[in-house]
Automatic annotation (TrEMBL):
Family, similarity comment: Belongs to the ABC transporter superfamily. ABCG family. PDR (TC 3.A.1.205) subfamily.
Keyword field contains Methyltransferase: no
Assigned keywords, A-Z: ATP-binding, Membrane, Nucleotide-binding, Repeat, Transmembrane, Transmembrane helix, Transport
First-listed, main subcellular location of the protein, grouped into a coarse class: membrane
Gene Ontology CC annotation, any one: membrane
Topology of this chain in the membrane: Multi-pass membrane protein
Job description of the protein: May be a general defense protein.
Domain ABC transporter: from-to ranges: 71-346
Subcellular location: Membrane
Protein name: ABC transporter domain-containing protein
Organism of provenance: Aegilops tauschii subsp. strangulata (Goatgrass)
InterPro entries attached to this UniProt entry: AAA+_ATPase, ABC2_TM, ABC_transporter-like_ATP-bd, ABC_transporter-like_CS, ABCG_dom, P-loop_NTPase, PDR_assoc
GO molecular function: ABC-type transporter activity; ATP binding; ATP hydrolysis activity
């Protein structure tokens, strides 16, 4: 230990250090006037329900999917009503969650804990319908409620595998705008407006809590210390294909990602998954200190908390089949069930007792009356008894009173409110980082383009290419077609890369208020230099080896067409990925789309051979515009000016354009290039709308599969 300390490592950050730091933090916030009122969460007759199909139609078979989709379309036009029944996940729950207290949410799997926490945090899925009242300090929660006032911590650990622990928490801190607050408090701790000893003590406490390694974000340093992530700070998160941190460390990272926001309400869902009992206790102890000293409102759901962890909580909510069976002080939980005739044995874990006493299989063993008088007490009976008799007793004994320190209608001040420019800078910095970490992918695609360019150049080598006849021109048409096609296929890498990032984006969209444009705009801007490099490499290797028109201007125009087509292809693939949301569906859509644009591109079937009612396909195919532009650039060169009469064409160049059904006027080149850039812009804008408004229903399948693989 002495040797370790001699190397300059910081001393361990104990619970007493954290308590002292939080006390100093509270005092300084009050002194600076950046404190915020307590938040009391009230819910009355809170009901969450969804609609499910009746009978065999609920099974996800192919015929059912087709019939269900047809019924949904018919229902929009009021032609029929789909056969569905309402299922209540939360059933008329009422209660109050008081600030400055730790509330434990208990319930068996399937009891509705996750839905209840999401309802309290205002993060319900669009497929769920909420009824009843939900209020923060007496104001009903709606879309105008500040997003960063409350934080929901999911039970799923979704992070970018290419980022380290510090970088992940830094990004969340920057998005939530919390580092400035710590800097203000640190500056206040350095001012000597009090006795010297007190200032030195506060400054020492602040430095010890917020200094770690080379990190400049003070809030991140503090979160890393209290969650025990110091050993893996600069380790990649990792995934199934990349080695990274352990499952328990991922869970702590998930907690820290939202805890760094310093919100006033935290709703944490099964945060002990993957953690041992000792680590769970340490984390809950830290959160308890934050709740008590920073006046936070905290609700945590745990499946089987050990006794020492249970004692850290002030209140308990017992949720069974969507109904609240008990809500009140932890010490009074067993008293209620004892009144009902059920007693917890001396050596029995109280948390296990509370979850088993409502179960039909385990209830009888806790009956303290005569055995012949025992009968099963339903959940409805427990809930009704609690509301009618025991709840008034708690209120009468002043054990469950509303908090009088909350101020109705007062706006809670948080560290949020970032400008769009700051959001863009934060997301752009992350995209640059991810680009560097994913550099092997781009290096591979560059090598792939180089090899393909050399292969194609040897097939159409200029020594075998002439420009004196229509047959020679046809060879050049084939070379130009392959160039456009390969550039188009090269953009398909965006499908896999976008699909991989969607689960994390949907989580951050919901919890960090990350907009779709903040993800796509930096991605689009950073793709421009990559596209310039790859299409420039292809053009440089193939243009003169194949023997296209020997003019630098035409070389640059040739490059401009391929660049615009590459950007169009990447934008189209981003849109398909954002709409499909799963890799299988995206590949199906991409294959169908590519086949369509190739068929209508003017090479497989000439424009002149298309039926009149299919002409729209030609004019909506990006491939057609690219092929027209690159062909015009080549065949309107002087070397194709050999006299050749075909209809109204007078040169070989014009004749081949006419024969293949291409446009023949030179001004169409710039029109086609402009249309291609327009396609790229439209595809990216539509991708932003898809990221913003499409829900993540399909992503849940991916999340569950990922959890199963890791398990």
């Amino acid at each position: 230990m002495a040797a370790t300390m001699a190397e300059g490592e910081p001393p361990p950050f104990t619970h007493e250090d954290n308590r002292r730091f939080l006390q100093m933090l509270r005092d300084k916030k009050q002194m600076l006037g950046i404190g915020s009122p307590k938040v009391e969460v009230q819910f009355q007759d809170l009901t969450v329900e969804t609609y499910v199909r009746i009978g065999r139609r609920e099974l996800p078979t192919l015929p059912n999917c087709v019939v269900n989709a047809a019924q949904e379309l018919a229902s929009y036009s009021h032609m029929c009503t789909p056969r569905k029944r309402a299922v209540k996940i939360i059933n008329a729950a009422s209660g109050t969650i008081r600030p400055s207290r730790m509330t434990l949410l208990l319930g068996a799997p399937g009891s509705g804990k996750t839905t209840f926490l999401k309802a309290l945090a205002g993060k319900l899925d669009l497929s769920l319908k909420r009824k009843g009242k939900l209020m923060y300090n007496g104001d009903e929660v709606n879309s105008s409620t500040p997003q960063h006032m409350h934080a929901y911590i999911s039970q799923y650990d979704l992070h970018h595998a290419e980022m380290t622990v510090r970088e992940t928490i830094d990004f969340a801190s920057n998005m939530l705008g919390t580092n400035n607050e710590f800097e203000m408090i640190g500056e206040a701790a350095r001012r000597k407006h009090d006795v010297v000893n007190e200032v030195d003590k506060n400054l020492d406490s602040f430095i010890k809590a917020t200094t770690f390694g080379e990190g400049r974000n003070l809030t991140t340093n503090y979160i890393i210390k209290i969650l025990g992530l110091s050993e893996c700070t600069d380790t990649l998160v990792g995934d199934e294909m990349r080695r990274g941190i352990s499952g328990g460390q991922k869970k702590r990272l998930t907690i820290g990602e939202m805890l760094v926001g310093l919100a006033k309400c935290f709703f944490m869902d099964d945060i002990s998954t993957g953690l041992d009992s000792s680590t769970t206790y340490e984390i809950i102890k830290v959160i308890q200190q934050m709740a008590h000293l920073l006046d936070l409102t905290v609700v945590i759901s745990l499946l089987q908390p050990p006794p020492e962890t249970l004692e850290l909580f002030d209140d308990i909510i017992l949720l069974c089949e969507g109904q609240i069976v008990y809500q009140g002080p932890r010490e009074n939980a067993t008293d209620f069930f004892e009144i009902m005739g059920f007693k917890c044995p001396d050596r029995k874990n109280i948390a296990d007792f509370l979850q088993e006493v409502t179960s039909m299989m385990d209830q009888k063993q806790y009956w303290i009356g005569e055995q012949h008088r025992y009968h099963y007490h339903s959940i409805e009976k427990f809930a009704e008894s609690f509301r009618s008799s025991y709840l008034p007793r708690l209120v009468q004994d002043k054990l469950l009173l509303p908090n009088t320190n909350t101020i109705k209608g007062e706006v809670v001040k948080t560290g949020s409110g970032l400008s769009r420019w700051n959001v863009f800078k934060t997301c752009f910095s992350r995209e640059v980082l991810l680009l560097k970490r994913n550099s092997p992918i781009h290096i591979f695609t560059t090598i792939q383009i180089t090899i393909l360019a050399l292969v194609i150049s040897t097939i159409f080598l200029r020594t075998n290419m002439n420009h004196k006849s229509i047959l020679d021109a046809n060879k050049y048409v084939g070379a130009l077609f392959i160039a456009v096609m390969l550039v188009n296929f090269n953009g398909m890498i965006e499908i896999a890369m976008t699909i991989k990032r969607l689960p994390t984006f949907y989580k951050q969209r919901e919890l960090l208020a990350l907009p779709g444009w903040a993800l796509l705009t930096p991605n689009f801007l950073l793709s421009i230099p990559i596209s310039l490099m790859q299409t420039g490499l292809w053009t440089s290797l193939t243009y003169y080896l194949i023997g296209y028109a020997p003019s630098f201007i035409r070389f640059m125009k040739h490059f401009l067409v391929l660049f615009s087509m590459h950007q169009t292809s990447m934008g189209m693939c981003r849109l398909l990925a954002a709409v499909a949301r799963t890799l299988v569906m995206a590949n199906v859509l991409a294959t169908t789309t590519l086949i369509a644009i190739f068929i209508f591109g003017g090479i497989v079937i000439s424009k002149d051979d298309l039926k009149q009612w299919l002409q729209w396909g030609y004019w909506t195919s990006p491939f057609a515009y690219a092929q027209n532009a690159i062909s015009l650039n080549e065949f309107l060169d002087e070397r194709w000016a050999t006299e050749f009469h075909y209809e109204n064409a007078n040169t070989i160049g014009e004749a081949i354009l006419k024969i293949r059904g291409f446009l023949t006027e030179s001004h169409w080149y710039w029109i086609c290039v402009s249309v291609l850039f327009g396609f790229a812009l439209v595809f990216n804008i539509l991708s932003i709308f898809a990221l913003e408004f499409l829900n993540c229903t399909y992503i849940k399948i991916y999340i569950q599969n990922t959890i199963n693989v890791e398990s």
